[in-house]
Amino acid sequence: ARALRGYDRSPEATPSAHLWRGALPTDLGVGTHRVEVRTSGAWRGELVGYNVNQSTGALTQAWTAGSQFPASFASRRIYINNGGAMQLFTSLSQAPALGTQAVVDYIRGDRTNEMPVGTLRTRQSVLGDIVNSQPVYVGAPNSRLFYRAEFTGADDYLAFVLANATRTPTVYVGANDGMLHGFNATTGAETFAFIP
């Protein structure tokens, strides 16, 4: 089983201004993954997943989220709340204050209008820096969480567990690109993003 466990912050000067390491705070089974958040001085963030050798504790890099973004920004699933309805963020009409479709596409990950060719700020990565946002792991629910509990709804929890037993393990983290990102905890691929 792949899971992320325990989370602690240990700032480190190199290779970046901020570095948080760890697995996540809830023991979610046998931990074979670890996640590391990196930020650079150029507004670039990175989420790195490691496989953990259960015998030795040695780490082997499994993925980097920043390298998993699709080649075409148009294929990203970025959502906004538009009048109480979740919608894919694709059009200037959804956010007219942004001024142009080029700015909307830039936010979605289009890099063709970055300087020096265009007028928008050059980015080192589509993923913004991750500062003051702790990654949260969500995987299969813990079937023993409400074992022998006696409150209204406790008996319904097992049905929820069974219905979500194969839920894709996901790491959620906010970034300074204005989005809450969901990344597949096994591959590092972005599954969706939300702009509040």
Question: How does this structure look, described?
Answer:
This protein has helices spanning 101-108, 157-163; strands at residues 7-8, 18-22, 33-39, 45-52, 59-64, 78-82, 85-88, 136-138, 170-175, 179-184, 190-195. The chain has 196 residues and is mainly beta. The strands form two sheets. Strands 7-6-11-10-9-8 form a six-stranded mixed beta sheet, with no helix packed on it. A five-stranded antiparallel beta sheet has the order 1-2-3-4-5, with no helix packed on it. Strand 6 (78-82) and strand 7 (85-88) form a beta hairpin. The longest helix is centred in the middle third of the chain and has 8 residues, at 101-108.
Essential attributes:
single chain, 196 residues, mainly beta, six-stranded mixed β-sheet, 8% helix, flat, disordered N terminus
For the termini, the CA-CA separation is: 33 Å
Strand order of the largest sheet: 7-6-11-10-9-8
What is the H/E order? EEEEEEEHEHEEE
Helix % is under 10%
What average pLDDT do the residues reach?
81
The major sheet is characterized as:
6 strands, mixed
How large is the share of residues in beta strands? 25-35%
**How many H/I helices?**
2
Please report the total strand number as a whole number: 11
